[in-house]
Amino acid sequence: MWVEVLVDYPGQQELYTYSLAPDLSILPGAILSVPFGNQQLGAIAIRLLSSLPEQLDSSKIKQVEEVISPSYFPAHYWQLLSQVAEYYQTTLIAVLNVALPPGLLSQSQRRIRLKPGIPAQGDVFLNASAKEILRLLRDLKTGGSGDYSWRYLQQQVKFAPKGLRELLKLGWVESYLEPPKSPRPKLQKAVTLTIDTSQKAATAKQQEVLEILRRHGGELGLRELLQVSGVGSSVVTALATQGLVVIQPREVLRTGEVGVRNPDQSKVLNADQSRAFEKIRQISGCEQVLLHGVTGSGKTEVYLQAIAPILAQGKSALVLVPEIGLTPQLTDRFRDRFGSMVFIYHSALSAGERYDTWRQMLRGEPQVVIGTRSAIFAPLPNLGMIILDEEHDSSFKQDQPSPCYHARKVAQWRSQLVDCPLILGSATPDLETWWRSQQPPALDTPYTYLALPQRINNRPPSPITIVDMRLEFQEGNKSIFSRELRDAIVLMQTQKRQGILFVPRRGYSTFVSCRSCGYVMECPHCDVSLSYHHSKQEGVQLLQCHYCNHTRLQPSQCPECSSPYFKFFGSGTQRVTQELGQLFPDLRLLRFDSDTTRTKDAHRHLLERFAQGEADLLVGTQMLTKGIDLAQVTLVGVVAADGLLHMADYRSTERTFQTLTQVAGRAGRGAEPGRVLIQTYSPDHPVIVAVQQQDYESFTTTALEERVALGYPPYGRLTLLRFSGLAEVAVQAAAERIADYLEDLPEGNFELLGPAPATVLRVADRFRWQILLKSPPQKEPNLPNCSVLRGLCPPGIALTMDVDPLNLA
């Protein structure tokens, strides 16, 4: 037997054939270790061959070394990955790197180790770098192990390649390749009974341990047993010596599980929810459903009740959320309903947790997997339903690196491949989703529109007040807080309620400028200004780039004119929090942005603290707008709505409407009525008016009229070609060369715009240019393969093809 594999090696995207040893049995999708040149690499088995292709010489075919992971994909899985690679103009290996947990495909590591028989004084005539390598390898007193990675030796020894060549020539060391390592199963010690239940132990404490084991089915983890019994490990060891128990390792899945907090039963649905649930329950096949429910209308309960019969049939459900910050709260609700059948899967998990969760999915047991966009590739064999919560959110689209896929598009393909329904839920659906749901259903992909127009228990929507900050300024209020917002916060405190304050931007200020000469502190690696950050009054004052994370101390004097006077423009979450603390010393505050949620489980801990009443006001960025359900929140404030509205993107009005509507929906979800205050310098803007009136349909009518006039989605298709490199002239030349090539295509069915510099020309020292292609709706642009276009770019110029881009900046 032979097998064709895809090898994890830069630039190698074709299939290679290997032979299989007689005792080696594999299935497509197995992760293998194979020889490739002089290396040992990871590879994935694509298909088995019973005969060797004629053009290949069997004597030159290398053999598969070992099977790293025998797990294999469901039948449709390879077809899905191939479809993603083809549509998004990328390579199979790039898709696999997104789909598989980290570590399953990883390159081997070159290592250097000592060989026996080195002469005692033989190093006298070695060059300096060879002597240093030899010293590191053989000096046990300084930790020398006789075996180091080549990367480490290069870091420690100057001119290491020269020294290694001499040692290899003498035969004193050898260079070898360590096979690829996948994440290993996690093992913990378990204690198991091995005796008849009537047999007695030697001591009272030992007898107590045996009784605890019997009550727990005869086996417990060693750590848990010691905690429950309160005895020392010597007691259990003595039992093992007597042959009464066996202590042995057991595999423990690192799935990030938490126990059920509050066991939950199905709620009684209102009329709108019941209609939606019954329609979903009757679906057979790959029908797509848009569940358009206002904020607080009970979409999650519909999801839960729709999933229950899927699990009862022995199938699984996949639930996608846009942000990791949403996962804890949603996971808790699902686990309260379905218990240990719920698993989470996203990039914030450790490599081991992702590896174990991915492996247990392959068992085919009924389960619910909740995750972010990459979870669309979860290898569930018996998938019965896919749900995208907050389907409008741009986080479902990956901009970089390749593949630039949209989880909603991939979910549509997957639902068709496995013939299961796809539920798209949102209070503010994406304009393209809304438009398609209103069209006559296509024969191949039927579309159903379901509405939840009322909040649970007929709670009224929170009234939205628009505060004109121009009038505030004219009347002498130069604060970032309007008088009305300040009064609302005071009232909230008096009533012992809680509130949310939304700020479009993290940090302290948008940019820092010298008040004497006007010099703006800019990032040395990007064409953007640095944002001012500091966490507390006596803390370190930092300037940070929000594009490349370059950080430097705030200077005491202007680098241009030496003036000590700086002006801080704009308002980020840090500044808002600091000024709130000065205005309201007794106000308890929590910040909820990417700066405060970097650590594992930080999202959960912050939200739990707020839900338990440890703070009065939660100040944060976009994370606050996405699915947070806190009944005690009665006030929502938006500090600077204009920061969303005035962006150089054709989707800016849609994003502004969605964001403001979503954050407004966080208020008044409990028994107490809510209130929303939006501060803006553009109170008469049509989007602001539509948000205040909470009129989604009038907004969509206006927005779609603008789209059809410009030929933008859904009335046209866009493809964005992004070029980047270290030399601006070379990047521009490459973009112009590709543009000329595309314009000369005889059957081009697209309009070419550009090439032009990106909105931010330089990011992380790389200059960026782009070309935008507009083609007719429902038709793919007649373009050559992306590999052909990349071949026209000179070395050092990167080209990314973003199909259906959401961000044109």
Which strands sit side by side, in order, in the main sheet? Answer: 14-15-13-16-17-12-18
Judged by helices, strands and strand pairing, the structural class is alpha/beta
Poorly predicted sequence stretches spanning 5 or more consecutive residues: none
Q: Indicate the CATH architecture of the largest domain.
A: 3-Layer(aba) Sandwich
**Number of helical stretches of at least 4 residues:** 24
- Span from first to last CA? 51 Å
The averaged pLDDT comes out at 83
Strand content: 15-25%
Shape: globular
For the secondary structure, the number of strands is 33
Q: Any idea what the CATH superfamily of the largest domain is called?
A: P-loop containing nucleotide triphosphate hydrolases
The main pleated sheet reads as: 7 strands, parallel
Describe the model.
With 809 residues, the protein is of the alpha/beta class. The protein has seven domains: 2-99, PriA, 3(prime) DNA-binding domain (GIY-YIG endonuclease, 3-Layer(aba) Sandwich); 121-178, no CATH class; 187-251, Winged helix-like DNA-binding domain superfamily/Winged helix DNA-binding domain (Arc Repressor Mutant, subunit A), CATH 1.10.10.10; 271-458, P-loop containing nucleotide triphosphate hydrolases (Rossmann fold, 3-Layer(aba) Sandwich), CATH 3.40.50.300; 464-508 and 571-705, Rossmann fold, CATH 3.40.50; 510-569, no CATH class; 717-803, Ribosomal protein S10 (Alpha-Beta Plaits), CATH 3.30.70.600. The protein contains 24 helices and 33 strands. Strands 14-15-13-16-17-12-18 form a seven-stranded parallel beta sheet, sandwiched between helices. The chain has a six-stranded parallel beta sheet with strand order 19-29-28-20-27-26, with helices on both faces. A hairpin with a 2-residue loop joins strand 31 and strand 32. Helix 1 (77-87) crosses helix 2 (92-99) and helix 9 runs parallel beside helix 10. The longest helix has 16 residues, at 728-743. 39% of the residues are buried.
